[in-house]
Design brief:
This protein is 33% helix and 23% strand. By secondary structure, the protein is α/β, with parallel strands linked by helices. The protein is elongated, with a radius of gyration of 19 Å. It starts with 10 loop residues before the first strand and ends with a helix.
């Protein structure tokens, strides 16, 4: 077994490497996060060994196996076991009992989702509506929402980085410096604001930004 552990705020363990889980894991790796990927199927693990730096065959229903892998040291966990309800629930329960503070669970239906929440999941996602790449952006908290289009264009909701605080958009020059456009601003307890050059960004503002996917990702990472 791989006895590695992680303590960074962007460390993620992904359990279950089907289409959705592998999509999340690969996207997280591409975004530069520390990822430990687990699946009980040896062939699945082998097939992903070339694209995931840390992929291990393990049964997440076995709490001792998770402990040996240092899973308790990870900041986030994604449980992507959709076909086996019992295994999914046990995996979430094990993670919860280990004290993982941010657990995401894939669910096939609302009943599955409710059970996952009751045993410790903090977020439930449904693969029909939430693509793996999108969830990867949301898991580590850099973006609050993210939508990517087929032509490499993305729209995201993200917290305003410090460099924009207290300045009009014309002065912080987000478009020139980061190649993204601030479409609007959502301020707590206030209506949505359509952004203009003289719009001043305040600490705590949420920015709606649009642009090439990589540029949007880089901008959100500045938070």
């Amino acid at each position: 077994m791989d006895n590695r552990s992680a303590s960074g705020t962007d460390s993620v363990v992904v359990i279950g490497l089907g289409r959705f889980g592998s999509g999340v894991a690969i996207a997280l790796v591409q975004l530069g996060h520390d990822v430990l990927a687990l699946d009980r199927d040896a062939e699945t693990v082998q097939s992903l060994a070339s694209v995931l730096p840390h992929v291990v065959q393990a049964d997440a229903t076995d709490a001792e196996a998770l402990k040996q892998l240092g899973v308790r040291d990870f900041a986030h966990a994604v449980v992507s076991i959709g076909e086996n309800l019992e295994a999914s629930v046990l995996a979430v329960l094990n993670l919860s009992q280990m004290g993982i503070k941010d657990i995401w669970a894939k669910a096939n239906n609302p009943s599955h989702g409710r059970i996952a929440e009751r045993v410790g999941a903090h977020h439930v996602v449904y693969p029909e509506a939430d693509m793996g790449e999108r969830v990867a952006h949301l898991v580590t908290g850099k973006m609050i929402d993210f939508i990517e289009f087929e032509d490499g264009f993305a729209i995201a909701k993200t917290r305003a980085p410090r460099e924009t605080h207290g300045k009009p958009l014309s002065e912080s020059a987000v478009r020139q410096r980061h190649k993204v456009t601030v479409v609007g601003i959502k301020r707590r307890h206030e209506d949505f604001i359509y952004a203009k050059e003289n719009t001043v960004v305040k600490p705590g503002d949420l920015l709606i930004v649009a642009g090439p996917t990589e540029a949007v990702e880089r901008f959100a990472a500045r938070v």
